[in-house]
Amino acid sequence: MGRKLDPSRKEKRGPGRKARKQRGAEVELARFLPPVKEQVSPQKEKHAVKAAGQAARGRSGFSDSNSKWLAPAKAKKIQSKGNHVELSSDGEVEESNWEMEEEDGSSEEEMVDDYGASSSEEEELLPIEKAALKQKSDSEEEEEEEEEEEEEEASESTSKQKMGQEEENPDLQLNLDIDEQFKLPTNEEPPDLHVIHQRIKGNLEVLQDFVVKREEGRTRQEYLAVLRRDMAAYYSYSDFLLTKLMDIFPLPELINFLEANEVPRPVTIRTNTLKTRRRDLAQALINRGVNLDPLGKWSKTGLVIYDSSVPIGATPEYLAGHYMLQGASSLLPVMALAPQENERILDMCCAPGGKTSYIAQLMKNTGMILANDSNAERLRSVVGNLHRLGVTNAVVSNCDGRQFPKVLGGFDRVLLDAPCSGTGVISKDPAVKTNKDEKDILRCAHLQKELILSAIDSVNAASETGGYIVYCTCSIMVEENEWVVDYALKKRNVRLVATGLDFGKEGFTRFKDRRFHPSLKSTRRFYPHTHNMDGFFIAKFKKFSNAIPQAQKEAATPSAVPDTVVEPPPKKKKLEGSKADKEQKLPQPALKKKRSLQSQRRPLKA
């Protein structure tokens, strides 16, 4: 039967935390405490009411005539010689060495049957049901305790907040005053991105209301220098590029532009109407788990992709040529060109073929398109895309665009997407932030001027339906856009016309100390922070005469005359010995004529 222990020798211990959760803990606790007048807490009153309700419900079950016989008798729990072991709700073994007498009005009445086992109203319940009842009562007690604790904490926190507000109000006011007064930093301050960002904001606020908020003895140029240095450090731009951008944008708009370049542009696709319709393509892609929407009211073929469960560049629809992955901004030049059916069109810089295929789509595979690019490796992607998209009216050529009027001319329309510095697509190529300088911009501008003159010369002004040239770049630099367009207006018989695009910002007619032609208002600029597409510039020309202006010929002829008359100095040094030998062999009259000619040439050299 197990070991026999003498309960009188056992050291008495008070109930622990787990014992409080058990039924009868109050009775057990009373054994270890001196007799004191009990103070009933409101929580115990609630438990007593619940217990009374349970007892009332239990007694209502006895309704037959033998209710007196069925009522349990008053008895005492008799301690056996051995220890009676009970399991608590926590699975711990406890030795019961105490007696429990029934109290009047209590719901837990016990009786002893012939075998010495206890029986009560809960005798009919299964052990699991008893455990559930015990757990339920324990959880109710814990919830009530937590509610009381939460109420106490809430009252304490409200009182602390009231006290803290009274104490912190002067400090808050001081902080506001400190933030409002922006001061230029010293060189000793360490670089911290958070501090730099806050400094940029404060600097912008001062520059917007410079007269009121400026620090005494400081000039506007000092504030601008600090702002440029901070933005270069925070956004990782070169000082040259930031200076250029500060000339183009107002300061608040510049911050929006720099922030927009840190976020990639949405993925857009163009429906190939030679093979499908936009509605059918959208339904097919939605069935494949693609989340998309129409690009906008201005485009009838574009779709914007938000997310996709399949790779957009490898779907069966893509491989079948139903759509082309193409940026939203690259749709605009073709829309401005507005090609007509049965026309002869030149795409001077066509790689990778998105604009060329869009032109063929609008022409419904009629007429002829000459797709030219100076880079033979990039033409591979052009040929692949044209085959995949089902374009049959295109001829691919690999020529230098500057030689094009000699190669082939007489086109109805020409599209020139000129190579540029790429300052409008910084989100795609972040290296542009630091690897561009003044020489790169001027080199691109010079190449663009040569290409635009070649494009204008390739167009037939007498065309019945055409005579248009569209010039576009993915740059926002004025040197590559308005400057080039203004140069073309001076050198050829062309004029600017409306692009046909309802949105976009007007081009500059004046920039710093430069003044451009007033018709440059009809050109269009697109920015990432305003139109959510890559930075782009578009200008549309109409050629009204095939004749080249006279000023161009007069400028070309004087440049050729000095080259024929004046010999270059290095060649003269190499041929000095041979000339001396020839002079000795020449007869005397011929030698005199030679020297007289040399004396006439001397002032020309000077």
Automatic annotation (TrEMBL):
The active site is at C474. GO terms for cellular component: nucleolus. Keywords: Methyltransferase, Nucleus, Ribosome biogenesis, RNA-binding, S-adenosyl-L-methionine, Transferase. The keyword Methyltransferase applies. Residues 1-169, 552-606 are annotated as: Disordered. Residues 575-585 have a biased composition (Basic and acidic residues). Residues 10-22, 591-606 have a biased composition (Basic residues). Residues 89-113, 139-155 have a biased composition (Acidic residues). S-adenosyl-L-methionine binds at C349, C350, A351, P352, G353, G354, K355, D373, D400, D417. It holds the Pfam family RsmF-B_ferredox. GO terms for molecular function: RNA binding; rRNA (cytosine-C5-)-methyltransferase activity. It is found in: Nucleus, Nucleolus. Residues 257-544 form the SAM-dependent MTase RsmB/NOP-type domain. One of its GO terms (biological process) is rRNA base methylation. Belongs to the class I-like SAM-binding methyltransferase superfamily. RsmB/NOP family. PANTHER family: 28S RRNA (CYTOSINE(4447)-C(5))-METHYLTRANSFERASE-RELATED, NOP2 YEAST -RELATED NOL1/NOP2/FMU SUN DOMAIN-CONTAINING. This is NOP2 methyltransferase. It comes from Campylorhamphus procurvoides.
